[in-house]
């Protein structure tokens, strides 16, 4: 397919059996814009179709795994436009990959970035990892399964605290 603008995609490991996807939007702390999410779906599809790839790792930078959905992209859209236009359609592709997926998280994993990490089968968090669902601070709620996945990951009490206050937790 066409080259990637927002991702670095390669095979890693001694025998090239690990699909490595690095989010590459440093100027936006790897905010998840529509273009990045489309490229992520393409990369996941390619690795899933490749019989030599046994696992897929998704990572970002030292500063940010992904700082959430691209708010600038969302600003001009009404609720109706987002809802009827399928704004988050396809965001759950990571959760439907049949091969094991691993989120290697350093820095911020906020909002959609936290949700992206939670869609993976395994999360490896570095010492600088910060997880959060700060949508409440923008007057909205987590929209890509964050409330459900977060509750399963950290329990009801901590999930409620995080979602209702927007506070972050460390690894």
TrEMBL record:
InterPro entries in the record: ClpP/crotonase-like_dom_sf (IPR029045), Enoyl-CoA_hyd/isom_CS (IPR018376), Enoyl-CoA_hydra/iso (IPR001753)
Q: Which GO terms describe its molecular function?
A: enoyl-CoA hydratase activity
An annotated GO BP: fatty acid beta-oxidation
Q: Which Pfam families match?
A: ECH_1
- Matching PROSITE patterns, A to Z? ENOYL_COA_HYDRATASE
What is catalyzed by this enzyme?
Answer: 2-methylpropenoyl-CoA + H2O = (S)-3-hydroxyisobutanoyl-CoA; (3S)-3-hydroxybutanoyl-CoA = (2E)-butenoyl-CoA + H2O; 3-hydroxyisovaleryl-CoA = 3-methylbut-2-enoyl-CoA + H2O; a (3S)-3-hydroxyacyl-CoA = a (2E)-enoyl-CoA + H2O
Provide the Gene Ontology terms for cellular component: mitochondrion
Describe which pathway this protein belongs to, using the record's wording. Answer: Lipid metabolism; fatty acid beta-oxidation
Q: How does it assemble?
A: Homohexamer; dimer of trimers.
Q: Which family does it belong to?
A: Belongs to the enoyl-CoA hydratase/isomerase family.
* PANTHER family from the UniProt entry: ENOYL-COA HYDRATASE, MITOCHONDRIAL, ENOYL-COA HYDRATASE-RELATED
Q: What is this protein called?
A: Enoyl-CoA hydratase, mitochondrial
Gene name on record?
Echs1
């Amino acid at each position: 397919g066409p080259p990637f603008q927002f991702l670095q995609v390669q095979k890693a490991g001694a025998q090239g059996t690990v699909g490595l996807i690095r989010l590459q939007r440093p100027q936006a702390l790897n905010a998840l814009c529509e273009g990045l999410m489309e490229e992520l779906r393409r990369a996941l599809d390619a690795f899933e179709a490749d019989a030599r790839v046994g696992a897929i790792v998704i990572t970002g930078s030292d500063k940010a795994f992904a700082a959430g959905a691209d708010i600038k992209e969302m600003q001009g859209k009404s609720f109706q436009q987002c809802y009827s236009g399928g704004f988050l359609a396809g965001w759950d592709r990571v959760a439907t990959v049949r091969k094991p997926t691993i989120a290697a998280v350093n820095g911020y994993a906020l909002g959609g970035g936290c949700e992206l990490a939670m869609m993976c089968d395994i999360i490896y968090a570095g010492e600088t990892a910060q997880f959060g669902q700060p949508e409440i601070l923008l007057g909205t709620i987590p929209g890509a399964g964050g409330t459900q996945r977060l509750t399963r990951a950290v329990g009801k009490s901590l999930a409620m605290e995080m979602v209702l206050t927007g506070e972050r937790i460390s690894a």
